[in-house]
Amino acid sequence: MTTTLEHTQQAATEGGGLARKQNFVTALIGGVVFAWLAWFLAHHFLDASSRNYSDLVTTALTFGWMFGFWLGIGALNGPARWLIGADHTRADDLYYAGENQGRARYWKYCTDHKVVGVQYIVMTAVLLGAGGILAMAIRTELIVPGNHFVNQQVYNGFVAVHGMLMILALIVAVAGPWANFVVPIMCGARDMAFPRLNALSLWTLVSAAGLLLSVLAVGSLTMGWVVLAPIADQAGVGMDFFAMAIIVFTVSTTVAGINTICTVMTMRTKGMTLARLPIFVWASMIAAALGLYAFPFFSLVEAQTLLDRTVSTSFFVADGGGTGWLQANLFWLMGHPEVYVILLPAVGALFEIASVMSRKPVFSYRTAIAGMTGLAGLSILVWAHHMFTTGWAPTLGGPFMLTTELISIPTGLFFLVIIGTIWRGNIWMKLPTVWLFGFIFNFIIAGITGIYLSDIPIDNQFHGTVFVTAHFHYVFVGSVLFGALAALCFWYPKVTGRFLDETMGRISFWLVFLGVQVTFLSMFVAGFKGMPRRYSSYSMIFEHANFVSTMGAYMIMSGMLVLLGAVVRSWNHGVPSGPNPWQANSLEWLVPTPPPLENFDVLPVITEDPYNYQEELVRA
Q1: 51 phi/psi in degrees, rounded to 5
Q2: Fewer CB atoms < 10 Å away: N or C end of the chain?
Q3: What's the maximum distance between 2 C-alpha atoms anywhere in the chain?
C-alpha cells in the first residue's frame, strides 16, 4: 500500500498523468482499434441494401480512425480534464512541453513549439518521400510509349495521390517547421499563443496523411488530384478516404494559421513593432491569413462530396438539381490562393537568407511586404483562369485574364527585392545561398511560362498538355522546394547545433538542379508538340522527350536521397556550428543552441530592425 501511495504522489508531482503512457504507437493502435470498431458497428447496424451503404461504412471507419488517433496520442486529454474540472497543473504543462524527456518527446503530443517544428521536418520528409516514390512510378510508366508498368486506372490513382501528397508536403515544408521553430523566437515570445493547438495541428496532419495514403490500398481515385464532380460522386470508396483526409487537413491548417497570427499579433516582445518584424514573420502571417481564407473552400467541397455519396444530397448531381460547376468553382477558389500559401513562406525564408548571406539589409523592406500582401490579395481574384477552356462564364474571361496578368506585378516586386538585396553584397556562398540562386534561376522560368498561360488564346492551346505540368512543377519543385531546402540548410544549425554537410549538400543541389532542368524542359518540348496530360501511354512522336524527362526525374530522386543522407548524418556527426554561425541579428540566432524551454530567461527589448548590416558592409 505504501509503495502504491508513493507512486501516486510521484506521478502527481511529476505531472503528465495518462500522457506518460501515450505516444505515436498508442495513437496508431487507437486509430486502428476505433476504425475497426466503427466499421463493425456500421457494418452491422446500417441497411446493407442501401445504395450508399459502402460509403456510409467507409466514412464511419474514417471517423473512427480520427477519434482513436486523437485519443491515443493524447490530444483529448486536456479537454477531458477540463470537462471534469481538473485542468492541467504546472507539472502537467511541463511534462506536455517535453521537459527532461530527451528524444522521446518527438514521438509524443508535445506542446513545445521547437519540438513541433522538428516533428514537422520529419513529417514533411515522409510526405515528400511518399509523393516522390509515386512520381518515380509515374515517370517509369512514361519512360517509353506503350509501357505496361501499371495499367491506366492504377496510373490515375498514382497521379491523384502523388499530386495531393506533394501539395500537402509543400504547404507545410516551410510553414510547418520554421513558422513553429523560429517565428516565436523571432518575435521574442516564450511559446506559441496556443501550445496545445499547435501540437494538435501536427498530429492532425499525421492522421490526415494516413487517410490519404490509404487511398491506394482501398481503391485508387480515377479522376486526378482535382477530383472533379460528378466523377467524384461515382468513384469507389477511395474517394471517401480522400475527402475525409482533406477535411481533417483543413482542421490542421486552420488551427496552425490561427496560432501563427495570434502569436505574432499578441506576443511580440517590447519594442518589436510591426515595422521591425523579420520578413519571414510577415510572410508566415500573410500566408496563414490567406490559408484561413482558401482552405475552407476545399474542405467544403469535400464535405459536400461526402454528403452526396452518403446521404444522397445532390450538390454536384445534375439529376437532383446540382451542378459540377459548383465543385469546379469551389475547388479553384482554393486552388490558386493555395499556390501562394505555399510560395510566400519560402520567399520569406529566402529574404532572410539573402540579407544574412549578403551582409546587407533587405532591399526596400516595405516593398517586400507590399509585394507579398498584394500577391495574397490578387490571388483570390484569379481562380477562374483554371477554367478558361471549360466554357464556364466566357464573358468573364477578359477580367480574369487581366487579374492573372496583374499578379505578375507584386510577384516581380518581391523578386526584385531579393535581387536588390544580394546586388553588390559580400555574398557568402554557403549551402543556403546555393539553393537561393537555384530558386532565382527556376523562378524566372516558372514566372515567364506562367504569363503564356494567363493569355486565353495561348491557354486554349496549352491547357491540356504537359506544358502546364512543366510550368507548375517549376513553381512547386523548382521554386518552392528550393526555397524550403534553402531554409532547411539555413536553420539546420539552430535545430541541431551542427552544420549540414556542405559536400553532400552541394552534390544534392547539383543533382536536383540539373534534374529539374532535364525533367521539365523536356516536358515543355513535349507540350509544344501537343502531348496531352494524364495519359499512361502516348504517341511515338513524344518518345525522346519522355525518356529524357524520366532520366531527369531519376536525377532529382538521387539528389533528394543524398540530401536525406546529409540530414541524417549531420544530425549527430556534423561540424559543430555554435549558436550563431551566420552572425545574423534576428532573435533566433541570439539565444543558445538548442534554445531553452521558454526561449528567453529575460524577454529582450528591441531597439532596431534585424537587418542592420550597413556598418559591416562598409568595413568589408
Answers
A1: -70, -15
A2: N
A3: 84
Number of domains the chain is built from = 2
Q: How buried is 311 (Cβ within 10 angstroms: 0-12 exposed, 13-18 middle, 19+ buried)?
A: exposed
Same domain, 119 and 257: yes
Residue 498 DSSP SS3: strand
Q: Within 13 Å of residue 456, how many CA atoms lie on the same side as its CB?
A: 18
For residues 97, 98, 100 and 105, what is the CA-based torsion angle, rounded to 10 degrees?
A: -170
pLDDT at 48: 85
Rounded to 10 deg, the angle between the 408-422 and 337-358 helix axes is 10
Residue 12 lies in a domain: no
User: Whole-angstrom Cα distance, residue 498 to residue 503?
Assistant: 14
What pLDDT, on a 0 to 100 scale, did the predictor assign at position 4?
44
Residue 68 pLDDT greater than 80, yes or no = yes
The domain that holds 328 is classified in CATH as 1.20.210.10
Segment 303-312 mean pLDDT: 93
- Tell me how far apart the alpha carbons of residues 91 and 17 are, in angstroms, rounded to a whole number: 10
Q: Cα separation of 473 and 479, whole Å?
A: 8
Return the H-helix or E-strand segment holding 226: none
Write the pLDDT tens digit of every residue in 336-368. Answer: 999 999 999 999 999 999 999 999 999 999 999
Structural domain contains residue 10: no
In whole angstroms, what is the distance from residue 417 CA to residue 431 CA?
Answer: 21
For the chain, percent of residues with pLDDT exceeding 70:
97
Sign of the alpha-carbon dihedral angle for 74, 78, 79, 83? positive
CA distances from 509 to 167, 357, 400, 433 (A): 22, 18, 37, 11
- Cell numbers for 539, please give them: 504517341
pLDDT digits (tens, 9 = 90+) for 472-489: 999 999 999 999 999 999
Contact of 95 with 16, CB cutoff 8 Å: yes
Q: Is the peptide bond before 594 cis (omega within 30 degrees of 0)?
A: yes
Instruction: For the chain, state the CA radius of gyration.
Output: 25
Cα 597–Cα 8–Cα 21 angle in degrees, nearest 5:
55
CB within 8 Å of 121: residues ≥ 6 apart:
176, 177, 488, 495
**pLDDT value, residue 86:** 84
| 59/156 same-domain check | no
Q: Which three cell numbers stand for residue 330?
A: 469551389
Domain that residue 274 falls in: 114-387+394-619
Distant-in-sequence, close-in-space partners of 4: CB < 8 Å, separation ≥ 6: none
Q: Specify which residues 576 forms β-bridges with.
A: 498
Q: Is residue 186 within 8 Å of 267, Cβ to Cβ?
A: no
Query: Which residues on neighbouring strands pair with residue 532, listed in sequence order?
Result: 465
Q: For the packed helices 482-496 and 113-141, what is the interaxial angle rounded to 10 degrees?
A: 140
Query: How many residues in the chain?
Result: 620
Q: Does 495 share its domain with 411?
A: yes
Domain identity same for 67 and 119: no
Domain co-membership, 150 together with 66: no
C-beta separation of 73 from 23 below 8 A:
yes
In this predicted structure, the answer to whether residue 168 has a pLDDT above a threshold of 50 is yes
